[in-house]
Amino acid sequence: MIEDFSEKIRLFLRSLPEEPGVYQYYDDEGRILYVGKAKNLKKRVTSYFTKDHYESSRIRLLVKKISDIKTIIVKNEMDALLLENNLIKELLPRYNVLLKDDKTYPWICIKKENFPRIFPTRNVIKDGSEYFGPYASIKSMYAMLDIIRQLFPIRTCNLALTQKNIEAKKFRSCLELHIGRCKAPCIALQAEMEYNENIKKARNIIKGNFSSVLKDLKNEMFELSEKMEFEKAQLLKEKIVLLEKYEGKSMVVSPVVEDAEVFTIISDEKSAYINFLKIVNGAIIQGISTEIKKKLEETDRDILLMCILEIRRKIKSETKEVIVSFDPELEFPGVSFTVPKAGDKKHLLDLSMKNAEQFKKEKEKQAELVDPERHSKRILQTMMKDLRMKEEPQHIECFDNSNIQGEFAVSAMTVFKNAKPSKKDYRHFNVKTVVGPDDFATMEEVILRRYKRVLEEDLEMPQLIVIDGGKGQVSAAMNSLEKLGLRGKVTVIGIAKRLEEIYYPGDSTPMYLDKRSETLRILQQIRDEAHRFGITHHRKKRSKGTIKSELNEIKGISEKSAETLLKEFSSVKNIKEKTEEEIAAVIGKSKAKLISEYFHKPIQE
Known about the structure:
single chain, 20 helices, flat
């Protein structure tokens, strides 16, 4: 509460304006802790000191360290976002998330010089040169450069091609001229105007404006044809075909979506995963995925706004339309946000979301391979929070029942330890006391037998018991745990198949987990394992029951003989159709005669 903080902090909070702006927190040594933005500075900053923040240990720790606060008032939230972004980059506060620097990604550079070169680079230098990217895929970047070099003769040397040096004949032509990849402007064989026209076309290809380049090439080809310069026209035709093939490899979205950018975000407790797609003339020409490590439980909205601002700034974007999955409730100058519900733009949004999800899976898989224990720990902590548990579910047991109208009733128990199957601990239960199809009574019997044995033999008790079913099955399980004095000592939940509802004892309202959450994935996996394990045992028992009901009714035919016949002929139906001699070849004449007489006995009048 406010009373727990220093007089300086209390006075400052009372004097805060109710206007948009940026706030900065400092510790007692004057070091920057955190920079944030707010629509209303008074409400936002005061909330840090009036809420207990029991959910987040990091926020509690941050608030304890705050010794001084500074604010800057701005006109609107957009200005606050820009200022926050600049201050975070300059001050590098400990508790702020930082967008990963894209220096490791390559860019395509059009150098600011006479007869500009086009080349890949990882160093963006502010010398007036043009930079396009960053490219998340090096392969796609080199494919772009390759098509440009095949279409246009652009120099690769780093000579200082000033007019003075060319007139002084300081240079000699190289192999590039002789193989047709350069027209040697170094020895004045190509005019600067013609060279720059090729650079202009290359720039359009890099930007994704294939149509304008194709139009120019086709017009030039027709002009050459009219002048009877067919060899030159044929060379241009080959370039047109090459460019059209390259354009066809781009992922065309729709002629309806011309120029747009798509941003999507998915997140968990520790990180947010952002995907960005750039669309030009209906084709995806660029895609970037990045991970943001959370520091203080930042919202998806705040992280997405930061990424939109930063990525657009890096790629010098002038695109007017930004497609997002939710309204960021902020006006970007000259930008309109679209939240599509259907159509081509929704397909684009779904594609971007799919890329974000795949990127998240890749990161998680890498983390699991590098540090399996840390990966498991993270999942267990997520499950503990999602399922409102007091301890991590390091040991989970799940129960599922199988029967056909009460016949051959069995129950299966599967076990997960540290979020992984522990198959050596799986168990089957043949139901003993229940008559008829009573799933609740079956669950009650099996839970009682299992945990009575756990208590009697001092076995390891699970932190979480998962029941395959809804309210009724959970109540049945709780009846048995009550008898054993275990109510409240272990978390019990039910997972219903139809909508994957999560039920708690005594609560008729189910809880729904995010369909993409790791917690739900683990629960589904252990539930499906229990179902598979139970069905396998059930089939075996049913098969034995079928043998007894058909063949074992024949006096003189043992279970072993019945099994031998079924292995040979696959089914009782096939055995009925066999001759006595065929059966005798498998189990002997005397037993074959008994079977033949049983199945082919005359019908009594």
